[in-house]
Amino acid sequence: MPHRDLPWVAPEDAAFHLARHHAGCRFVLFHSAGRRMVSSPVSYLAVAPRAVVSVGGLDAVAALLNEAGADPCCASAAEAEDGLFAFRGGLAGYVGYEAGAASQGVAPRHDVTPDDPPDLWFGLFDLVVGFDHARRLTRVHLTRLAGREPEMARLDWAVTWLGAATRAAGTPVGLPRLTWRDDWIEAAYRRQVARVLAYIRAGDIFQANFTQAFVAARPAALCLASVQARLLAANPAPFGLWLRGGVFDVISASPERFVALDRAGCVTTSPIKGTAGRADDATADLAAARALAASEKDRAENIMIVDVLRNDIGRVAQLGSVAVPALCEVMSFATVHHLVSTITGRLAPGKTAFDLLAASLPGGSITGAPKIRAMQIIAELEAARRGPYCGTACWIGFDGAMDSNILIRSLVATPHRLIAQAGGGIVADSDPAEEYAEMRLKVAPVLNLFGGEA
Predict the structure, then answer these.
(1) What distance in Å separates the CA atoms of residue 70 and residue 74, rounded to the nearest whole number?
(2) pLDDT tens digits for 178-234?
(3) C-alpha Rg value of the chain to the nearest Å
């Protein structure tokens, strides 16, 4: 597997340079906040896909990977490398919420418009740049696909533009003030939350994640490179994303891992449920974190989702391998504290990353419990398609390893619109006014880029 080690270039600068100087280049940036986020200290930039699939579901995505295939000698070479970078080539993209719900038999209620991004998008990438934040190391990998000689010109091209990005890092430009149209004004949102609560009291569900969308017209000259740079600078997160799919972009500062799989078959998932805002004063901030840790409502919300994900992973895991090594731990991010749990397991023999995704999508933390009925209620009550939001962005390597996020704290840019979405888990003792405030807290990092208020 040919590779080149280069002087450090920040991953956001590399993507900024690509977007500004190679406008037609499709890419996927998985951006970690680096040393500040020990859960994800490495970033990846997958560049110029060999092929793309945007229809047909996970079976079509799996077929794309299997048909391309890395040369066996490349797989063994990857094993012999120093282990700094788990992703050296394979698939990168996303599965949107509706695609995940449909795979569980829950049909979407809202029509697709010509301006909507696809429900699923994956590229096959032989060229991947890895960024090790701790070692300040940039490495370009080029995988030799089965039956092909590696095209060293692609490696040389990557080295050239990465050098240019190092010498002249992009400076984000100012962003315009936008007018956002939300699905529900506060009173209407609270009424919808009350309808979810009625389903809980009737015994249909224990919890449902209810969300809404904020939509603005896309300015003609909007610099998405600046949007991505400003969002991640203001909201450093371990599972950030910038996916440039051609006519659409997905940008996210997600704090939440979905499912990770190493090449040995070990599975990890880290659901988030429970949120409290950060305070500028250190004493008040610590008090907010302690109150979140002690909140019976937030802990119950988290534990319900842990049970959902234990069940999901258990469908494809070895019997007795599923465990919960961490329950309701407080993790602090740029603007919020969250309760985070960790579930682990080991895939059963013969199962793959695609089986794990099929068993787990959509994520339990953005659906509810019981999962199928919660998704049916979501389809009934929400006013708009979720699209990529609340789906998962992931990479799947030629060696079978995978990592993925829950696509939250996100912005979707279509040819004519910008779409931001947010919500929260509703449980029996949820207060509609408090749920509205929490939703606004979560969407604020995106809306504030453009002047803030809807």
Answers:
(1) 6
(2) 999 999 999 999 999 999 999 999 999 999 999 999 999 999 989 999 999 899 888
(3) 21
Encoding tokens for residue 145?
């696909």
Nearest to 198 by CA among 379, 366, 426: 426
- In this structure, which amino acid lies at residue 450? F
Phi (first) and psi of residue 254, to 5 degrees = -75, 135
Looking up tokens 């779409």, which residue turns up?
419
d(CA 51, CA 68): 9
pLDDT tens digits for range 370-404: 999 999 999 999 999 999 999 999 999 999 999 99
End-to-end CA distance of the chain: 49
Within a 10 A sphere around the Cβ of 220, how many other Cβ atoms?
5
At residue 117, what are phi and psi to the nearest 5 degrees?
Answer: -70, 160
SS3 388: coil
Mutual angle of helices 224-234 and 11-21, in 10-degree steps: 170
CA 294 to chain centre: 28
For the cut 50, the answer to whether the pLDDT of residue 35 exceeds it is no
Average pLDDT over all residues of the chain: 91
Q: Which helix (H) or strand (E) is 91 found in, with range?
A: strand 90-95
The confidence score (pLDDT) of residue 178 equals: 95
Cβ count near 13 (within 10 Å): 18
Q: Which of 98, 151, 186, 273 is catalytic?
A: 273
**Phi, psi of 183, deg, nearest 5:** -60, -40
Active site residue 351: no
CB 244 within 8 A of CB 31: no
* Measured distance CA(141)–CA(158) in Å, rounded: 10
Do residues 355 and 259 make contact, with C-beta atoms less than 8 angstroms apart? no
Nearest Cα to Cα of residue 30 among 44, 20, 41: 44
pTM over 0.90: yes
Active-site annotation holder among 67, 81, 151, 256: 256
Q: Can you list the domains of the chain with their CATH numbers?
A: 3-167+179-450 (3.60.120.10)
**43 vs 86: CA distance, rounded Å:** 10
Name the percent of the chain in helix, strand, coil, to the closest 5: 35, 30, 35
Q: Is 371 a catalytic residue?
A: no
List residues bridging with 277 in a β-sheet: 336
**Cβ of 49: how many Cβ atoms within 10 Å?**
22
How far is residue 117's CA from residue 250's CA, in Å, rounded to a whole number? 9
**Identity at 453, one-letter amino acid code:** E
- Tell whether omega for the bond before 362 is within 30 degrees of 0, i.e. cis: yes
